[in-house]
From TrEMBL:
Signal peptide: none annotated. Its cofactor is Mg(2+). PANTHER family: HALOACID DEHALOGENASE-LIKE HYDROLASE (PTHR43885), SUPERFAMILY HYDROLASE, PUTATIVE (AFU_ORTHOLOGUE AFUA_4G13290)-RELATED (PTHR43885:SF1). It comes from Halopseudomonas xinjiangensis. GO terms for molecular function: hydrolase activity. Keywords: Hydrolase. It holds the Pfam family HAD_2. The keyword Hydrolase applies. This is HAD family hydrolase. The keyword Hydrolase applies.
Amino acid sequence: MQRLRGWIFDLDGTLTIAQHDFPAIRRELGIPAGEDILDYLANLPAAERLELSARLDAIELRLAHSVRPALGAAELIRHLHADGRKLGILTRNLRSVAMSSLEVLGVLDCFAPADILGREEALPKPDPDGIRRLLAAWGLTGAEAVMVGDFRFDLEAGRAAGCRTCLINSDNPWPALADWHVGDCSALLAHKCAGLP
């Protein structure tokens, strides 16, 4: 972990306390239960896709006003930034929501604007497109980076890009996908500072 030069983070449920009630969002948008929201929208006819996407954007912007930091998130980001690590955000949310959330956390200045990727800037996870874009911009290989997230899509994207993976804040360890599994950002910072493999 000490040798990792690039750190890519999911946002909701990783650096912030999870607040998306996905079953409620599906009901509000009329999306069948269990369907991946972004996949469902991508397969709609253009007019319907645009209308539902605009409604989803409005829901996310509404939720952005009540974002709360996850335990130790700001301290972890500040430590990595001070340590000279490359920092990126890869979220299935809007980029504007990500930037607003990072501002609430007090760490927006730790991220280059081009290194904050939402669903408009990269294909949504589990596709590794966003990770590959960040690695290319940073001049790093997958082996030099880690994808940190709270869901299997984060881990699958990291694995597909050849990165190490860290699962955070989750009771579902997905052991075949996660190199590390920690309870929160404070635990991840302690793990990193301890120089553990």
